[in-house]
Specification:
Helices cover 36% and strands 17% of the residues. The protein is α/β, with parallel strands linked by helices. The chain has a single domain (5-112), classed as 3-Layer(aba) Sandwich (Dna Topoisomerase Vi A Subunit, Chain: A, domain 2). It has a 4-stranded parallel sheet, with helices on both faces.
């Protein structure tokens, strides 16, 4: 299997916002709220040969889910939005593009202006 990038976000609004910025095909998975270690493992089993990226909100809920992912998948790369924006879905597109570009994702150039 070719290495693929898998991006894990909290909800559908996060997925839509990030997907709009991305230029390359990336599998985006939503946790849809609170998850357990068992649910994380079950959700990511089909992606065990992929590069995992975690992109959660900068709030209490996002940090709790992030901690679970750090324990279950320490090899996952964690992306962080700035605390001032709190949520991925409210982060400006140009900021999202910069965050993703820093981790070698291909982004639409118009979001870098």
């Amino acid at each position: 299997m070719d290495l693929r990038k898998v991006l894990i976000v909290e909800g559908g609004s996060d997925r839509k916002r990030v997907k709009r910025v991305l230029l390359e095909p990336v599998e985006i998975i939503c946790t849809n709220g609170t998850v357990s270690p068992y649910r994380i493992e079950e959700m990511l089993l089909p992606y065990e040969d992929c590069d995992l990226y975690v992109f959660f909100d900068a709030d209490e809920s996002g940090e709790k889910i992030r901690a679970l992912f750090k324990r279950a998948y320490p090899e996952a790369i964690h992306l962080y939005t700035e605390r001032v924006y709190r949520q991925v879905e409210t982060t400006p597109y140009r900021v999202l593009a910069s965050i993703l570009l820093a981790e070698n994702f291909e982004v639409h150039p118009e979001f870098l202006l």
